[in-house]
């Protein structure tokens, strides 16, 4: 399916539906870059991955997604596999855009929780807020911390640092 997508577009399978994801704009990439830089400053032991495909499993349909950012121990994806098991993932991050916001807030959040990913960071540019979802149970996260864009928000252990969103 990816071969049939327009150049620069991604194909994701979310809750059994195929979605074409357009290329990100510059502001989107600046946000991802800023998060990655802060992670590097605080946690040099973690890999900061973009473009990594994850296979999400659980009680609902399988999904295949490429989050905007994946944090996992360095070397977690050192192979030639296209779609990876999310077991080593500590955090997935998504930055919303008008075309992806609804999927990022709903189906992807459910898929990440079902897969047992411990932390889901959502930079919701449309709502002008940052959400940190933790403690996955079934298809939801039982804890959600929310702050307005521009504030700091705690990333829980094992990340264990404050993310400053002032540059977002």
TrEMBL record:
Keywords: Endonuclease, Hydrolase, Nuclease. Pfam families: Uma2. InterPro entries: Nuclease_put_TT1808 (IPR012296), Restrct_endonuc-II-like (IPR011335), Uma2 (IPR008538). This is Uma2 family endonuclease. It comes from the Bacteria. One of its GO terms (molecular function) is endonuclease activity. SUPFAM superfamilies: Restriction endonuclease-like (SSF52980). Residues 6-165 form the Putative restriction endonuclease domain.
């Amino acid at each position: 399916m990816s071969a049939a997508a327009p150049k620069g577009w991604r194909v994701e399978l979310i809750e059994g539906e195929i979605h074409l994801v357009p290329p990100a704009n510059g502001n989107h990439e600046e946000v991802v870059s800023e998060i990655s830089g802060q992670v590097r400053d605080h946690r040099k032991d973690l890999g900061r991955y973009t473009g990594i495909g994850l296979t999400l499993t659980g009680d609902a349909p399988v999904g295949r997604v490429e989050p905007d950012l994946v944090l996992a121990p360095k070397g977690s994806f050192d192979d030639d596999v296209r779609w990876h098991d999310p077991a080593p993932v500590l955090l997935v991050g998504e930055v919303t855009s008008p075309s992806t916001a609804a999927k990022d807030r709903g189906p992807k959040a459910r898929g990440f929780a079902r897969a047992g990913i411990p932390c889901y960071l959502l930079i919701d540019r449309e709502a002008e807020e940052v959400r940190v979802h933790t403690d996955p149970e079934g298809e939801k996260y039982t804890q959600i911390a929310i702050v307005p864009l521009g504030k700091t928000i705690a990333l829980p252990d094992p990340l264990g640092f404050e993310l400053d969103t002032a540059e977002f």
